[in-house]
Amino acid sequence: MATVHHWTGLEARALRLALRMSVRTFAEHLGVGVRTDSKWEKLRTGTEPRPDTQAILDTALARADASVHLRFETNLSMAGRRASSPNGQVTVTGPRAWEYESWADDLDRAVVALSRQNFAFAGTLLNRWLARFKVVELDGRGLYLFARSTVLLGDLRRDQGAVIGPLSAQHSYTDARAIFTQLGIPRRVAQVDLSLAVIAEMSGNLKTAARGYETLAVDDRLSRRDRARARLWVGTSLSKDGHHGYAARVILAATREFEDLSEPEDWSVAHQKVALAHRGAGDLNSALHFMEMARSTDPADSPLQRVRSDTAHGHILLSDPATRDDGLHVLDDAAKLAATFGLSHQLRSIGSIRMAAEGTSCPRRR
What we know:
- There is one protein chain.
- The protein has helices at about 10-20, 25-30, 35-45, 50-65, 65-80, 95-115, 120-130, 140-160, 170-185, 185-200, 205-215, 225-240, 245-260, 265-280, 285-295, 305-320, 325-340, 345-360; strands at about 1-5, 90.
- It is mainly α.
- Strands 1-2 form a two-stranded antiparallel sheet.
- Helix 1 (about 10-20) packs across helix 3 (about 35-45).
- It is elongated.
- The chain starts with a strand and ends in a 7-residue tail after the last helix.
């Protein structure tokens, strides 16, 4: 947004035109005489408003919306008075109105790129804005876009497997949470808390993750879908911690919630998770049953979804001596796809599954 350090008649006229007011209406708007305004119109840079009027003009510009600021900057440019010019009359801090629109468009494009695991392009879209502006330069709208960009950068790093550390998903989410807290947007703060709980689970802090999920599963700041996802992830962290039977019951409750919400992707993922819980309990028949249900409705329209689905399926097949070779084949294909798209966390998970299978005996079907 533009800031005028010292008003002349030229800047005053540019503001009048930006507000789309007549000379008389503009004078009334400011509370000055029509003759004063006419003088600004005539003399332009040859006259300067009095100090008290300078403050009135400051207030009028500050209260104007983004479209007025855009027209004001354009009018000054056309008049030969460029923002951030050497004379220091006018400076522009933070994004201009049209840059906000471009920024928002790039965030939409980044979401699509991330859904396809096109990490390089998504990173380019996000970093062009995060590197361009400092937090202290931004107003409320700019801070919101900066925080949203930071969350998406966290999603990118999470999917790439950079979970903890200075250039990690955890670091990005923590930064975004601070900005959303500053802006007073509790729903966004809770969503970031949910992402941070996922990071705790991915980094092996299962009890911390489960406690976070349990709290968020009943948090009214979140949407019903996000609360159901938190309930699902309570189950996944319990299953990883060895509490397979209880985990299966918790996950099934989340599955019913996703069915009520008509969320097929979440419903499919939940069935994958309950299948793995049954595998952990040694009930391979139930595991295969729920895995087939998941695969029958799994949209699998992204590499990450396909890798997760195939990893779960391969894990179950590998657990039965009769289907061990099939499981290895499915896991090999999943590993190749994960490597192609830089899904490091999934690659590590597949490696851990294979190592565990080599060192343990397979459970029997019940």
